[in-house]
Amino acid sequence: MNTTQHPSLQAKVKAKISIAGAGPVGALLATILSRANYQVNIFESRADFREQKHYQGKSINLALSDRAWRALDIIGATPLVKEHAIPLYQRIVHTQDNSQISQNYGDEQQAIWAISRVKLNEILLAIAEQEPLVNLTFNNRLTHLDFVNGCSVYANHSEHIVKQKEVESDLTFAADGAYSKVRRLAQETPRFSYSQHYMEQCYIELTITANDDGSHKLDKNALHIWPRKHFLMIALPNSDGSFTCTLFLNHDGEPSFSSLQEKEDIKAFLSTHFADVYPMLNDPVEAFCQKAANPLFLVSVAPWVFNNKVALIGDAAHAMVPFYGQGLNCSFEDCREIAELINIHQDDWEQILPAYQKSRKENTDAISKLAKEHFQEISEFACEPRFILKKRIEAKFHKMYPKLWTPLYTMISFSADLPYSLARQIGKRQDALMEQIMLIKDIEKHWQEDFVYEKLKSLVKQESKTFI
Amino acid sequence: MNTTQHPSLQAKVKAKISIAGAGPVGALLATILSRANYQVNIFESRADFREQKHYQGKSINLALSDRAWRALDIIGATPLVKEHAIPLYQRIVHTQDNSQISQNYGDEQQAIWAISRVKLNEILLAIAEQEPLVNLTFNNRLTHLDFVNGCSVYANHSEHIVKQKEVESDLTFAADGAYSKVRRLAQETPRFSYSQHYMEQCYIELTITANDDGSHKLDKNALHIWPRKHFLMIALPNSDGSFTCTLFLNHDGEPSFSSLQEKEDIKAFLSTHFADVYPMLNDPVEAFCQKAANPLFLVSVAPWVFNNKVALIGDAAHAMVPFYGQGLNCSFEDCREIAELINIHQDDWEQILPAYQKSRKENTDAISKLAKEHFQEISEFACEPRFILKKRIEAKFHKMYPKLWTPLYTMISFSADLPYSLARQIGKRQDALMEQIMLIKDIEKHWQEDFVYEKLKSLVKQESKTFI
Hints:
homodimer, alpha/beta, FAD/NAD(P)-binding domain, FAD (chains A, B), FAD binding (chains A, B)
């Protein structure tokens, strides 16, 4: 809504903030800022996806966990978003020999929540648009940004005419995603450290259709996973009864998107390695052939904040790989940090922005590393007996002594007040102790016996630190 | 020299290779390739520096060690280059309290060699120009490069007219340095991993003038170093009796290039921390004020080789920080690798280039990390008693058992056949063993006694690996 139509609002407006990008992060941030009495202009380069039949954009399914909810709580959006999400209480591992192993994500009531990115974006944009201080413009592509004075230029490409518009702002947030234009422009600023790292793996999406009655063909309250060591498929439920499957496979080598070119080879590959689900997939060979494999990359930059006039947020600042399911959770946590710092520093952006960068950079570096490392855990170890045993011992110990030990996955997904970087440090110390437990002779036989947990308890106490 | 004037040469020419950049690496590579019967076109964006009064370009002094000599041996350039270089047998540490500590670089005869970058470049270009198959063109800036077919476009900016020239090559080497244009263009290729990391430190150069009789004011056969923990100055001798000093100092914070703005503060800073050399410096306060601080950064990329048509080499592939004095040594080693692979794979570039990338990438990553870590060693530890003691024990042990232990610096600088990555691994294992030796009670008193070396010897043997 345009504030020029609301002169009464102008009086209390503290400053003018631009946001590049109207994805979930831009929309959430806009609502947070406007409710703190900032005038917010969001510019989105794409057309309004709500007016289009086919949504163009990143489509990896999302799983929201506690960090996302904590951020959405700030604007009261949690109940509405949960209405459109499906809780997943466990990971179901589909082994190569067609058996299934269930692994709870946390305690019985703890779940991660699957939701369509489009739906989530829709909800958050609708909330932002109700804010009198938010002004949302589509089809406006950022073409220039002055990192010293914060002025930007947007080009409007609609109706086959290009109109340039200069925008003055007290502050610009770049919420323009993994391929951020602002970040690309920032590469021209002095002493800008930048890294983009491509993974060996690429991905495509396949679909499991719904049953005729609209029900799901697999347990819908689980994330399904087919770990195959060097490649991997996962499936997340959609609310229409279908599942979206994501196949992660190397770009080169054997097998890979490069080596699998012939239809019969693709069919053999899919039906051999994903035998249980192959019959449920919607024309998978055709889909495999027609879709270009998407790259997976992670981005790390420094600084995030330029002259206290421009700040990166979300994937623009820290695009990561999806293996820990934390990308958007982490980006929403960026927004929560901004909200908290506005309160702490009473709208003094000269303090807010450096504090934001300092606190978030270290934590996003940590989750980005964890996400990269997690590929091996889910692709290689997820069905390895000793790995599964370790997870079981850990879960049992956590249940016995919840104040002494929280598993890393729980710290990341269900402990929203624990910073990622601290969780990672604790996780490393836990690994070292679990190594000692796994050295117990015939641990496979004895893992349920008390002495194992007494030993782990004494090891934890020796460290004289608790693993919260 | 242009081969069109030498039709007799054309018959034996194997293929046409372009080199972007006529620095020391481009010039050395051109001579190597032309002597292997390739027609080589070098394009340099700058004007011929030999025709100019003031050389524009990177000016950090160079120190050449065995890896450089080994590469220069291939074209027989070592004796000529050594004529213009000054051997440095030791590092002389100037402590804050104006005492001096000498540390030999290796055995008594082992030296690193200081040389002016301009002189070295001049020598290597003169050699390349004598090759009938080498064609050298200045003032030609690369504007376009097709990474699939290897075609490139150069623009000639001389005489205020821009002439564009299309160049077809079987292969293009990018030897265009730390700010490589080819590498920048490569960022548009698919799945290009790229990282540029800026250090906290920047640098400026100051000068110690010669005595009136042309002699040096400090020992000329040493690298002088003023370690001051968070900052650092080094001095390398020039053949005209002067020294070039490089002051490394943080960009921000206290003290830093940002904090030191007033002339009196600069004077106080320099005269306090570099008291012994301050009177010898040529107008240091003025020089400090007038020079913009240069950034220090490291670059890491993958791949280096594109469709076997374009390959990065030298700083274009692996720009590093100068703290180990290995930048050009490492780049020359890239050229040596190419020379050796041409022989091994008998001019089959489909094999040469992947092998080049595989072998060099891992080794340049290793030396780049070592160079970054080395700042702490030379700025912080160089005058720390326990560190110095460790180095002495190591040197003594190496002298007693040269086949069991070679210090890391020697492996890097004087063991040209030992790959950097292996040297780094060995160095880490040595560190762990030396930690145990330093735990010996009152090691400061006992370090010359036999039992210390017997213990170290048994530790090495326990590892059942020798530290060559």
